[in-house]
Amino acid sequence: MKSFLRRLYLAFLLTFFSGYLWAIERVVIGNWIVQTSPGSIEASTSAGSTSFGIYCQADQCMFYLHDSLRCHPGSKSPILMSGLGNAASLNMQCAQINGVLFQILEPFNVVLDEVKRGGLVSFAVPLQNGSFGVSRYSLNGGFEAVRKALQEAGNAKRTLPKPVDPLPAQPLQPVPGSRRLQDIMI
Known about the structure:
By secondary structure, the chain is of the alpha+beta class. It has one domain: Sandwich (Immunoglobulin-like). The protein is 26% helix and 41% strand. Strands 1, 2, 3, 4, 5, 6, 7, 8, 9, 10 and 11 form an eleven-stranded antiparallel β-sheet that branches. The longest helix has 22 residues, at 2-23.
């Protein structure tokens, strides 16, 4: 009887964890990780306690920075981005999506172009004490990871089941700084 219960318990655990493993797929591309889960796709790289990446949900994608500082949803600040022989002034806006704070970078295409160049990218963010916080990220594998995330987001959008009850669809509120999949050229 104990042996039967142990096997039953083990079978339950394997079933539970195998379902969880199928729910989240992680692929490493260079220094980047592409993570696909039901409802969202993310490609990111990290440096210490900070990360930089692209996040897609439904048909919206956005580049973001994430650090240990808490931002306030709706707050905006200018930041500087520097890459191989290139620099740009960007805006960063804090938005809360599914309970997670994102510091969304805009304009989208300027960040995408820098990821395409490869090498390293640095961001200088003004701090309240008058100094700058600087974070640097490797773009090794970045463009391939971003392209995979965008392709996965497009595939997920095409395979969404059609609603059985044709209720009028509520338009998805655009997230500031995000781009719709059909507007992104890679």
